[in-house]
Amino acid sequence: MIRRNAFITLAALSLSTAALLPLPVQAAAPASASASALDPNRTLRECAAKAESDPDVAFEQALRWQEKGGGDLARLCQALALFHKGDFKAAGARLEELAPLLGKDDPKAAASILGRGGWAWLRAGDQVRAEKLYSAALDKQPGDVDLLIDRAFARAEGERFWDAIADLDAALAKDPKRADAYLYRAEAHKALSNHRQALADIDRALELKPGDPEAILLRGNVKALSGSVNGARDDWALVKRLAPDSEFGRAAAVNLERAAKMASAPPERAPDKAKTP
C-alpha cells in the first residue's frame, strides 16, 4: 500500500479481514443422505482449512467433492485453493461468479464471498476490479468496518488516497479503536505529504497498540520526509531494538544504512556559471 520512496515502509499486506468473514452456511441434507452430504458446511470448513495448508491437495479434493454432488460449495473450496496456490485471477473470477449464487438469500454470505474476491483481485494487481467487489460487498453489508478498511486499501493501491481516507474516516467513526485503520490513514496522508496529519494518526495508533514496530517504522519515515532526520533515526533504531528479526526491523536497518550513506555523501557541486565573453 502507498507509493515507495527512499525509505522503506511496510503497510500490512496480510490476509484481508473481510476474507475472514464466515463462509456461507447451507441447510443440512435429509437424514437419508450420505455422511458428507449431511454436513456440507463441515466439509467446506475442512476443505477451506486444507486449502491453506495444502492447496494442491485441497483443489483435487474439491474436484472430487463436486463430482459427488458438492455443487457450488465445492466450487467455493476450489476458489480458495486457487487463491492459496497463488492463482489470484482465477480465484477472483470464480469468487465473483459464486457470490450471487451462494449469497442469493444471505447478504452476509454474499458480502463474505465478494470480500474474498476483492482480496484475490487486489493480489492479482487489479485494483479497479477489487474496489468493484468491495463496493458490491458493502452494498450487501453497509457500513461494515472490515470491508471499508479493505476497500480503502484497494483505493490506496490505485493511488486514490483521498477516497481511501474517506473510507477510513467512515470506518473509524464506527469503530474508533481500530489501530490498523489509523495506520492506513497515516500512510495515505503520508503519500499526500500531509505529514502533520500522518503523525497524528500514528500517535493514535500507538496509543491503541503501544510499541507497534510497524507504526514506529512509519513514524520514522514520516519524520524523515518532513526534515526531522535525527527523530527518524531514533525511531528506526527503536524498531531494530523492539523487533530485530521482523520485516519491520529489517526495513528499519535498511533505512538507517541509507540515512548514514546520505549523511556521509559529499555535497553535490553546483554547476559552473557560464562564462560571458
Automatic annotation (TrEMBL):
Instruction: Write down the PANTHER family for this protein, in alphabetical order.
Output: TETRATRICOPEPTIDE REPEAT PROTEIN 6 (PTHR44858), UDP-N-ACETYLGLUCOSAMINE--PEPTIDE N-ACETYLGLUCOSAMINYLTRANSFERASE SPINDLY-RELATED (PTHR44858:SF1)
Q: Which keywords, in A-to-Z order, does the entry hold? A: Repeat, Signal, TPR repeat
Highest taxon listed in the record's lineage? Bacteria
Membrane spanning segments where?
none
Task: Identify the species of origin.
Answer: Azospirillum cavernae
Enumerate the TPR repeat regions by residue range: 179-212
Q: Where is the signal peptide?
A: 1-27
Q: What is this protein called?
A: Uncharacterized protein
